[in-house]
Amino acid sequence: MTEPHHDRRGDGPVLLVVPGGAGHPMGLGPMTDVLAERFTVVTYDPLGLAHGRLGEPVADQRVEQWSDGASRLLEAVLGDGESAYVLGLSSGGIAALDLLTRRPERLRHVVAHEPPCVGVLPDGARQRAMFQEVYDTYRAAGPQAAAARLGAGLTGQEPGETVSGRPLSRQEELTDPMALFLAHVVRGFTSYAPDLAALATLSDRLTLAAGSDSRGQLLHRTAEFVAGRTGARFAEFPGGHVGAGEHPVAFAERLVETLAQHDEPCVSSDRPSASR
């Protein structure tokens, strides 16, 4: 069996990055440039969208598929007895939570940034229904209308008038990573229920993170809730939901600081900062 699609760069302890959306790592290069000064950064591409598979058929995605792929990737890049750090972003954060419950012996520490596992919340049924509306809007009116509905849902606003648009053709959908997320990822991942009891036994290896600009929003609340229920640490990172792309240097340095609080000096934030 071939290794899952990924990119590898840098030197040092392994840091597995699991992107959000449909797993396309676009926009993460500036952040991984900084991280590669301290880590062997392995960026997972679950659907191979950045590795020649954009435009090929995609099925509905399951969290366990991404988690299994990440596990196989770690087996390929880690030596005997070695373990890795993991940064999971958004939907990738959900996969990282699942990976931690399945392969804790291979993980040093996991940072899950704004994982949209909203079903754990007291109002989880309502929030899952909101994501279903996002999917239905996508199918009826296309990605721009769905993105507007998603933005309203994440910020707690009432949905406005539907943005005009049209459904994409199958070929158009297959060449648009955002459309693939809306069509094949958003429902399955937001309905996933993390094993909070299992995560509570691994809380020393887990940090839930959210953007400082996301305060008061749905996914900031979700991250705080999961941290509280599991006993894991909660940390704020620069920017909002896509802070890794908005503030790549500051986001990377915050990640280094977070990991350094839980492990050996090899990832100490005392090393010289990258130039901004």
UniProtKB/TrEMBL annotation:
MF terms (GO), sorted A to Z: hydrolase activity
Q: Which domain of life is it from?
A: Bacteria
Per UniProt, the keywords (alphabetical) are:
Hydrolase
Q: Where is the AB hydrolase-1 domain?
A: 15-253
Q: Return the protein name.
A: Alpha/beta hydrolase
